[in-house]
Amino acid sequence: MPGMKYFRRKICLLGDAAVGKTSLIRRYVEDKFDDKYVVTLGTKVTMREQVIQDPNSNQPMNMTLMIWDILGQREYKRLQTSFYRGANGALVVVDITRKETLDSLHGWILSLFNSVGKVPILILLNKNDLTEQTAIKSEDMDDAIKKYETSYLLTSAKTGENVDLAFKKMSEMLLFREQSKGSQEGNSKSDEMKQFAGPETKIPSETGATSDKNDNDSA
Ligand SMILES: Nc1nc2c(ncn2[C@@H]2O[C@H](COP(=O)(O)OP(=O)(O)OP(=O)(O)O)[C@@H](O)[C@H]2O)c(=O)[nH]1
Ligand SMILES: [Mg+2]
Question: How far is the CA of 170 from the centre of ligand 1 (A)?
Answer without folding.
Answer: 20
